[in-house]
Design brief:
The structure is a single chain. By secondary structure, the chain is an alpha/beta fold. It contains 9 helices and 9 strands. Helix 4 crosses helix 5. The radius of gyration is 17 Å and the shape is globular.
């Protein structure tokens, strides 16, 4: 895949750290990588955003943003309140396509969930993925409540004719509860897509060298890693 779109089932599910893990693993496999943040909100002009955090953790990636807005709100709202032009899905698609001419892999990270609005017309990350004809990787939480949001996201992707590449658990707890352990089997069932990885809680707090060394062990071979869903599931089964 030349372009992979990465979304979450909501906010604070570990999407940026998961994006960094995918980037680090691809770099370790010898691929050139660019990371494009579709719409960065909640940071000032000179502050590092999510793309910069991916580069800090993953290494030598090209980090880019389509637009940024100072308030931590949905992109359409943040753009309106800042009096700035909104991001359009076509802007995201064009920026990603240009990066794809110069890199083996372009990771497009969304803001929040799949249907968070970019503009007043209702454009979303899903629309950008459709324009790019790119598969979508969904980052989900581990515990109670994740089945509903993951299934809703998967259904919306399929209703739009988009390819759901798989699910990655953004933060696997050190001491998983019963719901989390059961979800290892239930997430693929409700989404109709494979589980492609699980990042340990606190992965983003690792030093860059440790993060890069560990990342391939968190992701499945389809993402250039060595993680085995079946072995992990047996180990963590209730």
């Amino acid at each position: 895949m030349a372009v992979l779109v990465i979304t979450g089932t909501g906010t604070e599910v570990g999407k940026t750290v998961a994006t960094a893990a995918v980037a680090a693993t691809a770099l370790a496999a010898g691929r050139s990588v660019a990371v494009l943040k579709a719409a960065q909100t909640g940071v000032g002009p000179d502050e590092p955003g999510d793309a910069a955090e991916v580069a800090r953790l993953a290494g030598a990636v090209t980090a880019a943003e389509v637009a940024r807005y100072p308030e931590p709100l949905a992109p359409a709202t943040a753009a309106r309140r800042a009096g700035r032009a909104p991001v359009r899905p076509r802007d995201v698609a064009e920026a990603a396509a240009k990066l794809a001419t110069e890199h083996d892999l372009v990771l497009v990270e969304g803001a929040g969930g799949l249907l968070v609005r970019f503009d007043a017309a209702g454009g979303t990350l899903a629309d950008a993925a459709r324009l790019l004809a790119a598969p979508v990787l969904v980052v989900a939480s581990a515990g109670l409540g994740t089945l509903n949001t993951t299934e809703l996201t998967a259904r919306e992707l399929r209703a739009r004719g988009l390819d759901l590449a798989g699910i990655v658990i953004g933060s696997w707890p050190d001491a998983p509860d019963l719901a989390s352990r059961c979800n290892l089997a239930d997430l693929p069932e409700v989404s109709g897509a494979p589980l492609l990885g699980a990042l340990p809680a606190g992965a983003g707090r690792l030093g860059p060298a440790d993060f890069r060394a560990a990342a391939p062990g968190w992701l499945a071979p389809r993402l250039d890693g060595t993680w085995d869903a079946e072995v992990f599931g047996v180990r963590e089964a209730p």
